[in-house]
Amino acid sequence: MGEAATSPAAQMAAAAAAYQQTQQQMRSIQGSVVQFDQQITQADLQIVAARQKVAGDKSREDALRQKVGEYARSAYQTEGSQLTQVLQAQSIAEVWDVLAEARVISERQRSLLDQITQLRHADEAIRDQAQSARDDLGKQRERALAQLRDLESKLSGLAAAVAAAGQVLAGAAAGKVPGNRLPQTTGADGQCTWYGEQAWLTYSDPSSPTLTGNGGDVVPNLARAMGRPIEMEPQPGSLVSWERPLMSAFGHVAYVASVDHDASGALTGYTVWEMNYVGPFQTDARHVAWTGPSSQIVFLSPPQPVDPIMKELQLYGAG
Fold first, then answer.
1. CA–CA separation, 196 vs 254, rounded Å?
2. Is residue 71 part of a domain?
3. 255 lies in which domain range?
4. Which of the residues 15, 136, 301, 306 has the least number of beta carbons within 10 Å of its own beta carbon?
5. Is the pTM of this model over 0.90?
6. C-beta neighbour count of 200 within 10 angstroms
C-alpha cells in the first residue's frame, strides 16, 4: 500500500530535468548528423574525383603503353641493325654511339613502365582512402542515428511522465475527507491510496466495494470488483490511477475534483485532489493538462454524476 521513498513530485521534477537534458543531447546529436551528412557529401565528391582521376590516368597509361610498344619495336629494329652499324663503324667512338642508343631505349622502357606502376598504385590508394573515409563516416552517422532513436524513445517516456505531472496549484487545497478510516479503505495512512479511497467513498460512492492495491492498482482493481471497464477520460468524481512506472514504482492514485473544457466542449484538463504527491500526509490540488488518452493513466467514474466541489461545501461548509 505504500509509496516510494522519493515523492512523485520529486520524481516528476527529475523527469522534467531529464527531459530537458535528453532534448539537449538530441539537439547535439542531430547537429552531428548534419555534419556527417555534409562530410559524406564531400567524401562522395572526393570519390567521384578519384574515379575521374583513375579514368584520366588510364588514358595516360594506355598512351604510355603505346609508347613502350613503339620503343620495343624500335629496340627490335635497332638490335637487327646494330651489328651492321658496329661493323661499319669507322672508329671506337662510333661503336659506343651505337651501343649507347640501345641502352637509352632500354632505360626509357623501364622508366615508362615504372610510371605506369606508380600511377596505378597512386590511383588505387587515393580511391581506397576516399572510400574508406566515406564508409567510416557512414558508420558514424548510423551510430548517431541509433543514439537518436534511443533518445527519442526515452524522450517519449519522459514526455508522458512530465505531461502526467501537471502542476500543483499554489494556494489551492484538496477536499476534506474523514479523519477516521472508512470500512472500505485499505490504503496506509499518509499515502495516496488512503486519501484517494477516502475521497472516493466520501464524494462519489459511499457503497463502493473495498478498494485495494497500490496507487497504480486502485482503479483497475475497483473496476474489476464493480464489473465495470476502466475509462480513458476523466469525469468529475472519478478516481484516476497512474500506472507504473509513472509517478513512482507503486504508481499513484488521486481523486478528480473537476474537469475543464474549452468553448467547443473539448476536454482540456482536469484537477485532482491527492495526498503524498509532495510527501506523506501532505495534500494538494494539482492541475493536469489533457494531452489525449494514455494507456498508463486510467479512470473510473462514479456510478452517478457528482460535483465534488459543491458536495464538499455541502458536507464541510466554506471553512
1. 5
2. yes
3. 168-316
4. 136
5. no
6. 28
Q: What share of the chain is helix, strand, coil (3-state, %, to 5)?
A: 60, 10, 30
132 and 200 fall within a common domain = no
> Do 86 and 98 form a contact (C-beta atoms < 8 A)?
yes
Of the three residues 131, 148, 165, the one that is the final residue of a domain is 165
Domain contains 181: yes
pLDDT tens column, 147-175: 888 888 877 777 777 777 778 888 788 99
Same domain for 265 and 244? Answer: yes
Give the C-alpha separation, 178 to 149, whole Å. 49
Looking at this protein, which amino acid is placed at residue 163?
A
State how far the Cα of 250 lies from the Cα of 213, in Å rounded to an integer: 9
pLDDT tens readout for residues 234-277: 999 999 999 887 778 888 999 999 999 999 999 999 999 999 99
Rounded to 10 degrees, what is the CA torsion of 65, 68, 73, 74? 150
Assess whether 161 and 173 both reside in one domain.
no
Last residue of a domain, one of 132, 165, 198: 165
Contact 232, 267 (CB under 8 A): no
Cα torsion at 295, 278, 176, 186 (round to 10°)?
60
- Grid cell, residue 248, equals 513512482
**Residues near 193 by Cβ (< 8 Å), separated by ≥ 6?**
1, 186, 187, 211, 213, 214, 215, 218, 253
Q: How many domains does the chain have?
A: 2
Distance CA 46, CA 296 (A): 52
Cα–Cα distances in angstroms (integers) from residue 242 to residues 8, 73, 290, 311, in the given order: 11, 92, 14, 25
